[in-house]
Structure formats: C-alpha cells, structure tokens
Amino acid sequence: MESIISVQGLMKTYASGLHALKNINLEIRRGEIFALLGPNGAGKTTLISIICGIVTPTSGKVLANGHDIQRDYRSARTEIGLVPQELTTDAFETVWATVSFSRGLFGKAPNPAYVEKVLKDLSLWDKRDSKIMTLSGGMKRRVMIAKALSHEPLILFLDEPTAGVDVALRRDMWEMVRKLRASGVTIILTTHYIEEAEEMADRIGVISKGELILVEEKTALMTKLGKKQLTLNLHDKLGGIPPDLADPRLTLSAAGTELIYTFDSHDERTDIPSLLKRLTDHGITYKDLHTRQSSLEDIFVSLVKERT
C-alpha cells in the first residue's frame, strides 16, 4: 500500500544531550488509522512535532505526501492538520470566525460551504456563532479538530484527542475519526487510552526511550503477542499450589480462591485437560471457570517492560 508519510533515519538530540529520537524509520499508509503508543517521555510528541515541521531534526528525512518537510516546508505543511493536546484558541472569537481564519492562514480561498460541512460533521453547526470561551471542553476540542481540517489536509495528527473527555464524548470522537478516515483522511493519533488504539487503529506503533520498538497490524499484534488466561474459581481456599503441580504458567490469587493458568491459545498443546485432571487427582475442585484474552494494554506493558 502507498505511503503518505515516510520517515527515514530520523534522529533528534537536544542541546542538553537528550537523545529524544534514535534512528526512527516509519512508513504510514495512505488512508489508515495509525496509533502511536508510548509512556511519557518516550518521544511521541517529538516525532509528531518533527513530521509537522515544528521541531527541526538532528538528522534524517521526512516526506509528507511526497514533499520534504524541510526543503519544501510550505507544501508539506499544507498536507497536514495538527490537533495538539493543549486547547489553544482565541477565546473571544466565534467558532465560525476561528475556523475560517485558520483556513486563510494556509492560503486557501474562502469556502463557506466547506467550513459549513466541517462544522456540521463535527456537530458544531449550532455553535457557529458562539464564542469559544462559552463552549465546554469537549466542544473546544471539536473546534480544534475543525481548525485542523479547515485547509482540507490529507493527513490529520491527533495528539491525545480524548484527554479529559468523558466516556460518552470519547465514543462520539471515535465515530468522528472513523468518518474522517472514510472520507480519505489518514489519521495518526497518540493516546494514553489503550482501549482507544484497540478500538480504532489499523496499525500500532510502540515507541520507548526514543526508539520505535514495534510497528504491527493491530490484529496480527494481538494474535502474535496476546495470551489467554484460564481462571478457576475454587470451591475451597488454597494456602499454596502443591509442589508437584508447580508450573510457571500456573499462579494462585492472593486470596487463595482462584487459580490462573496462562497459555498461548495458538499452541496445540495447551495442557489444559492434563491440568484439570491433576487438580482433580489432588482433590482441588472448582465451581466455575472462564478464559480471558490478553488486551492490548497487557501487550503494551510487557513490551515496554522488556526495554526497561
């Protein structure tokens, strides 16, 4: 699939000596939703800032829809819309004025019909004459997205788009992002909400300590690294696992009322029948059992731990 963003050998070292990015190579496909995950200080914002032309890299190359972000800055930047995490806009302007003005900053001719469409798509039309200062936090975030879309970019960066937003509005935002992707916009988002990436992303990138440690299709990532857990709710509390049942995959809950067996669901030899028989032989009975697939959060935590 064709790449719309190409990052090649990207490095960033600050004057303090901090190596914020270390040889980042990344291809983002046209029309996908790409989620960039990483702990605080991992380099997510630095990477986005360089791609958007806000920060100058120490070395490396970035192309946005074929335009070099340094040598052809104006053309490259026109391809990109950025929604920063901070809500920064003119509090005394109306919604209509601030979105229209943002379009003009990119040299686009006035287009009231397009601005109207953007505001309607973002459920802002009835607020078009309201001053920004009168809006709720969720509505202000929608205005930030409208500003970022005002010049008709093909690429949209969302930096923590639902930070501080309640659950209901977060789901509305997810639906809005899907509609944007369906209209042909490529979406790159950073998020601390793992379920956000799990819900929306086509591919996941994980960055830690300035290194891109993994880029993978979401479904393939969860298949490759995801584990399943079999939890047995015991009839009687156990003080410990009998020595001859010892297995690194088998653990006892702190309360002694559950046995948890972790296994690879794609391994033909899960040994579950053998485990259940051995438990019965020891007189250990259970009243219920259930399985749980590892979430993306489990996978993310284990990947980052490996690098610490």
TrEMBL record:
Q: Which SUPFAM superfamilies does this one have?
A: P-loop containing nucleoside triphosphate hydrolases (SSF52540)
**What InterPro entries does UniProt report for this protein, alphabetically?**
AAA+_ATPase, ABC_transporter-like_ATP-bd, ABC_transporter-like_CS, ABC_transporter_ATP-binding, P-loop_NTPase
The record, for Pfam families, names:
ABC_tran (PF00005)
Q: Which UniProt keywords apply?
A: ATP-binding, Nucleotide-binding, Transport
Q: Where is the ABC transporter domain?
A: 5-234
Record's protein name: ABC-type multidrug transport system, ATPase component
GO molecular function, one example? ATP binding
